[in-house]
Amino acid sequence: PFKRITSNKWKERLIATCLEHKVAVYSPHTTWDAVNGGLSDWLASPFEFEAVEPLAPSAPELTRTEFSHHVTVFCPLALSDKCQEIISRCRAEIVSTAKLETLVKFSALARRRFLEELESGLNETNSYYSIYERGPIPPKGCGTGRFGKLKSPITLGEAVNKIKALVGMPQIRIALQRGKTLDSPVGSVALVAGSGASVLRGVRADLYVTGEMLHHDLLEANHSGASVVLINHSDSERGYLSQFAQHLARHFGDTVSVSVAATDRDPITIV
C-alpha cells in the first residue's frame, strides 16, 4: 500500500492522475487468482483434467465460521503488548503480526458479540484500527494456482500449442526437463498465473505453466522433473480480462458500461 502519493514515482503519478480526474481504482488481483472460475481456472481451461485442485488452498483462517469480522490494528510499538492482550481478552484471534518502524500491525478475526468491548479497549491505546464484516466463506477449491492429472497424456508440443491458443501468442518460452523433447509425454500440469516460482517449488508435475521464473528456479524445476512454460507475467493474466469483463457486465447489467483496455500490453516484446 502507498504511504504517500507524490510525483516522484510513476505509480504514484498514475494514482494522482486518477484522483485528479475522480477515477476510482479497484484491483481485485489475487482475489480473482484464487476464486473458482477465476484466473487460475481460466489458465487451466485448455487441458482435460481428471480433477483440478488449488496448489495453495485458501488459508484455513478464511474458512473459520465462528468469526464474523476481520480486524486490522496499527498499534504504537510501546503499547503492542497491551493491544495484544486486549485483542485476546475480547476472544479475537490474531492471524498475523508485522512490525512497521514505530507501529505494530495486527490482523485478527473477531466475534460479533465482543466488538463493542474490542473497540473500547483499542481506543484506550490510541491505535488506528479498521473493522469490517467478513464476506462469504470461500468454497472448497479456492486458492492459488491449479494442479491436475490429465485424463489422457499429451505431448509437450501439444501442451504448448494449447497454451499459445489460450493466450493468443505466436511464441512462448519453454525450458525442457533434462532428456525431454517436445514429443515427450505430459501426464500432469501445475499452473500459476504471474510469478509462480514460490508456489510451484517442490510440486511434482510433468509441466509447470507460469508467467515468469528466475534462472535458478528454472534450473531447479528442470532438474527436479518438470519442464517449464513461461508466458510473460502479464500475458499469463491479460487474456482473462475479456471473461472478467463479461462477468462484470452480467452482474451490473445496464447500470455500468464495462470495457477492456485495447492498448495495454506486456512491457516485454520479442523481436
TrEMBL record:
A divalent metal cation binds at D33, H233, E237. Transmembrane segments: none annotated. InterPro entries: DUF34/NIF3, DUF34/NIF3_sf. Pfam families: DUF34_NIF3. Signal peptide: none annotated. The keyword Glycosyltransferase does not apply. Belongs to the GTP cyclohydrolase I type 2/NIF3 family. This is NIF3-like protein 1. It comes from Graphocephala atropunctata. The lineage of its organism: Eukaryota, Metazoa, Ecdysozoa, Arthropoda, Hexapoda.
